[in-house]
Each structure stands twice: as C-alpha cells, then as structure tokens.
Design brief:
By secondary structure, this protein is α/β, with parallel strands linked by helices. 57% of the residues lie in helices and 8% in strands. It is elongated.
C-alpha cells in the first residue's frame, strides 16, 4: 500500500510500529491490507474512547460530593485517603491510553496505512472497557444520586459540550473522507456517509433541546444565594469546632450548620459521626471504648479528646497544606465544643445556627430534644437565629420554643396543613422548575452540599435562596456566575459554530478529492520521465 502525498515513509513506519507493536519495513507494508476484523477493532477502539471520555466527565462531576465517599470508606474500613486523587489518576491513564491509540489509528488512516492492532492493545482495550463498565455499575448501585448530579451538570456544560462535540465530529471528516475515497465498497461508502450526515444534522439541531438557567439576560439574574457553612468551614479548620465556626464567619456565611449529640450525662455537643474515631484521638485516649457511640461518653471524657490534630494528619481537603503556622497551632488546640459554646459564638458573631440532632433512632431521643431545648432557651441567643432541622418531636419544640425557625427536610405536600416557609434538601432533589416555583411562593430553599463553582452558578441562575457548602472561601469570592449568556448571543454562537463546521467538512472532502485526483497524474508523469530517461540513454549508447 503506497503512502499518499505528504506522508513520509519514516513517519508511516513509526506510526504502524506503535500501533501494531512490531517494526514493519516499507516492502512488508505494501503487502499488508486492513481486513474487516481490523476495522471492527478500530470501531471498538473508538467506542472505548467515547466510553472512557464519558466516565471522565462523570469523574469530574462527582468531585463535588467526593468527600462523602471518603467518609463512607472510612466508616467501612477505618482507612482515610483522598480517593478523588486515585479516581482522577486512574481515569487520566485510561483516557490517555485510548486517546493515543485512536490518534495513531486516525493518522494511519490518513497516511493510507493498514490498521493492524497488536493483540496486547486488544487485551488492554477490553480491560479498559471492563474497568469503566465496573465503575459505572458501582456508581449506579452505591451512589445512584450522582446520575441526577450529571443531569444537573448538563445545564452548566450543555452549550459547551455541544461546541466540543461538533468540533470533534468535524475533525473526523478528514479520516472519513480519506477512507471513503480509498475504499471500493460502494455500500460501505453510502452507509458511512449516511451515518455521519445523520449524526451531524442531529448535532446541528441539538441546541433546540439544550436548556440552561444561565441562558438569560443580565437584568434577570436572581440575587446571589446566601452561604451556609457545612460544619463550619471544614476546608479551613476541623469540622464542628469553634475554629471552624469562626473561619465560616470570616467567609461571610449567614448560617453555621452543624450536628448535635447529647453526652451520657446530658450535655449537648457538636459531633457528626456516631463514633468518635474519625475526628478525635479517642483511640489513643480511650482505646477500649473507641468503637462506642458518641453518646456513651460523658462530658468530662469528651473534653479530654483532641478534636483538631486529625485535620493535619489526614488532610481531608487539599487546602490543609496551605494553612499558616498560626492556624496549624490553633488547630491542635481544638476540643469538642458544647452546644452552649457554639450558641454563644454564634450570638457574638451574629449568625444563625442550624443543626440536626443525632442519632434519631436512639431510645432516649426525647430526652435529647429536651436537653437541647433547655440549652437553647438558657443561652440567651435570639430564637430566630436558631434553625431546627430534626423531625422528631417537632410539635413539642414549637410549643416550648415558638420563636425557633422550623426547617423541613422534605418538599411540600398537596394538602399541607401548615405552609412550609423553609426547606433544606440535597441539591439533586429539586429541579429548576421547582426552585422557581418555591421562590415565587416565598418559600426559602437551601440545598446541600454545593462545593463546585459550576454547580453554585447553576443554582444561582435558578434562584435558590441559599446553599450549604464546604468551600465557603471559594464561593464567597464569586461575584458573578461562571457564565451568563443572553439567548440572542447563544443563538449567534450556535449558528456560527454550525456554519463553520459545515464549511470545514466540505473543505475536507473537496481537498482530499483534489489530492486524490492529482496523485495519478503525478504518478503518470513520473513514469513518463523514467521512460524518456531510458530512451535517451539507449540513444546515447
């Protein structure tokens, strides 16, 4: 198989060597042809690349919630690791491998070389497909809500994904045109052209189905959502500590969100996990009691625990590395705060405090509610600064502390006896239409946990009232959504991209047609020159 113009022999040989894993000389290469099986493997390679590319998109999206996954693994295995790094490194390796192979195959096709994929590459491609399939399966079984996160992400990335996919499919016109002009199978030519044209038409019309709340005029943008510090500012200080509360205040949060438990001697304190092992040194101080529920410890025992050093040792967030020496010292001095201490700090900082009371399935839960209410009423904090989340004994709470704001962890019902004023839900549980409707009905909507700027931007454009976040220091600095496009501007971008793509595709097919027609004439001219040279040499003899 001869190399087409513009494709040098060394380049073609090197490409084929990398793709087929053995050195093929130009003489041997002339006898090689691409079989139907080879084309099948090329199609499989293309599908694996797309499959891995989709997984890379999912991996980036689920980074918003990956701290929850790290906590889940710790509860199961007592091993702390930032698994997001493992995920990204593994995904980058898979996508890089399949992308390099695909680029090699496309270059070989443009150079008119056979596609002889080595058996080792075939095995690795099958393993890549199986690994990605297993990752998607595990995601669907253990973390199904992330599928809804992906749907939300399309509101932020849809317009740009459309441009990227159109660009990628446009570039495929070159190897496709090269293959169509080279093959003699008319049926295959027609099939490939029809499929390609159908895909491009669908892509050109795709914006008709793309919706995003950020496609709006500047003057229609709702106010920026208020920030709720998830356990304080857990990227800057140990979660559920007074230092975390003060760091959250520095980030301009309006609400400190936390979790409350009650000690064995009736003192409410801040703690999220049912066990103390993740966020304290209980294994060193009370090794024989480390596995006990947090509520089994009395307040004197809890005050002996270090609630800060784990933050420096395990580094739950990359931001820990950038802490100043003063902050690091302050971290080591943190202890488990009581609810009374947290209420006093919230009162002095003039921020609200919102909390869950755990564990809700405890046999003494009613006494927990009473102990918590007693501390709230004695603290002197204005009751409107207290946001009550627990559903258990809610009516008793309303009677004893009518000024406390009631926050509901559910959507409103059709026959609601008492209208909801504030709801607190996972961000995956509410659609853009529901958020807009709640906003029109003066219902405050707080969504959790929102860490990534792209997600915050989508919810901002939608009109959510507030978001609970681990990254208050990041969202605080956002003065505007990441992007905001008027519909007229998006329409113009859509038309320009589609027209440019169509022109490039036509140019690719016409140019390769011209080069194809030019090659035989050059070959005939070369043969004529050789013949004249021979005749001239004979005449001289």
């Amino acid at each position: 198989m001869a190399d087409p113009p513009g494709c040098c022999h060394p380049c073609a040989t090197c490409l084929l060597c990398l793709y087929s894993c053995h050195w093929v000389t130009p003489k041997k290469r002339k006898g090689l042809k691409t079989s139907k099986c080879d084309y099948s493997w090329f199609l499989f390679l293309f599908c694996v690349f797309l499959f891995t590319l989709v997984w890379l998109y999912f991996a980036i999206i689920i980074l918003n919630d990956f701290h929850n996954f790290n906590e889940f693994i710790f509860k199961q295995r007592k091993l702390w690791l930032d698994w997001s790094l493992v995920l990204l490194i593994a995904t980058a390796m898979l996508i890089t491998y399949s992308a390099v192979l695909l680029v090699l195959a496309l270059c070989l096709q443009l150079c008119g070389q056979p596609l002889k994929l080595h058996w080792l590459h075939k095995i690795l491609l099958i393993l890549t497909a199986l690994v990605v399939a297993a990752a998607f399966t595990g995601l669907g079984i253990k973390w199904a809500e992330e599928w809804r996160s992906a749907r939300i992400s399309l509101q932020a990335t849809g317009p740009f994904l459309h441009i990227g996919i159109v660009g990628g499919m446009t570039l495929l016109a070159w190897p496709l045109a090269s293959f169509i002009y080279r093959t003699c199978n008319k049926g295959l030519k027609v099939f490939l052209l029809l499929v390609y044209c159908a895909v491009m038409i669908a892509l050109y019309l795709a914006p008709l189905g793309i919706t995003s709340p950020c496609i709006m005029e500047e003057n229609q943008l709702p106010p920026k959502p208020a920030l709720v510090g998830h356990r304080g500012a857990p990227m800057l200080a140990p979660e559920n500590t007074l230092m975390s509360l003060h760091k959250a205040v520095d980030c301009d949060v309006q609400v400190f969100e936390t979790d409350v438990m009650v000690s064995a001697d009736g003192v409410p304190f801040l703690m999220h996990d049912e066990e103390l092992t993740r966020t304290t040194n209980v294994q060193a101080v009370f090794p024989e009691r480390a596995a006990l529920n947090s509520t089994a410890f009395n307040w004197t025992d809890l005050q002996q625990l270090d609630a800060g050093s784990w933050f420096l040792e395990r580094r739950p967030f990359p931001t820990v590395q950038s802490l100043s020496a003063g902050d690091r010292y302050q971290v080591t001095k943190q202890r488990i705060p009581s609810l009374e201490q947290a209420l006093e700090a919230a009162k002095q900082s003039n921020i609200s405090i919102m909390f869950d009371l755990r564990p809700e399935n405890h046999s003494d839960y009613q006494s927990f509610v009473n102990a918590t209410l007693k501390v709230i009423l004695q603290s002197g904090i204005p009751l409107q600064q207290v946001l009550w989340l627990p559903d258990g004994f809610r009516e008793e709470v309303k009677q004893q502390a009518p000024g406390v704001q009631q926050i509901y962890g559910r959507k409103r019902l059709q026959n609601e006896k008492e209208p909801l004023l504030q709801v607190n839900l996972p961000y995956q549980d509410m659609s853009s239409e529901e958020i807009r409707q709640y906003r029109q009905d003066n219902i405050s909507v707080n969504l959790y946990v929102v860490n990534q700027p792209w997600l915050f931007s989508v919810l901002w454009c939608t009109g959510v009232s507030s978001v609970t976040t681990n990254a208050c220091q990041v969202l605080k600095e956002m003065k505007h959504p990441i992007w905001l496009l008027p519909s007229s501007t998006y329409l113009m971008i859509w038309i320009v991209v589609d027209c440019a793509s169509l022109l490039v595709i036509l140019w690719a097919f016409l140019l390769l047609k011209y080069v194809r027609c030019l090659s035989p004439s050059r070959a005939r001219s070369s043969e004529t020159d050789v013949l004249l040279t021979k005749i001239n040499s004979l005449m001289q003899e």
